């Protein structure tokens, strides 16, 4: 049975990705069960809240900007179509 070279490339990439995932899982587990990682000081809660709120607002404005750009492109396209129909 003949296998293509792309199969071996995909297999190699899959192995590399799995090695990285296992590496990060090992790092996470080693810190998760250590004594210094289980203590969270009181200021951390507000910091995490600020990070989540900032991320939410950033995503909101990002998608709003994309929506506005697409809307303006659609309006311009419909105006051009209307002008070409009126010109006939």
Written account of the structure:
By secondary structure, this protein is an all-alpha fold. It is built from 2 helices and no strands. The protein has helices spanning 5-32, 43-87.
Summarize the SSE layout with pairings:
Blueprint lengths: L4 H28 L10 H45 L1
Supply the key terms.
88 residues; mainly alpha; 83% helix
| Secondary-structure element series | HH
Estimate what percentage of residues fall within beta strands. under 5%
Shape: flat
Kindly state the number of beta strands.
0
Main beta sheet strand tally, sense and closure: none
Distance from N terminus to C terminus (CA atoms, Å) equals 63 Å
As a whole number of angstroms, the C-alpha radius of gyration is 26 Å
Task: Give me a quick take on this structure.
With 88 residues, the chain is mainly alpha-helical. Helices cover 83% and strands 0% of the residues.
């Amino acid at each position: 049975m003949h296998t293509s070279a792309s199969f071996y490339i995909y297999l190699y990439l899959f192995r590399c990705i799995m090695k990285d995932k296992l590496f990060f899982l090992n790092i996470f587990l080693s810190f998760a069960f250590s004594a210094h990682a289980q203590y969270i000081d009181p200021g951390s809660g507000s910091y995490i809240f600020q990070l989540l709120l900032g991320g939410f607002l950033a995503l909101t404005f990002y998608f709003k900007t994309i929506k506005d750009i697409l809307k303006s492109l659609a309006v311009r396209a419909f105006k051009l179509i209307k002008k070409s129909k009126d010109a006939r």
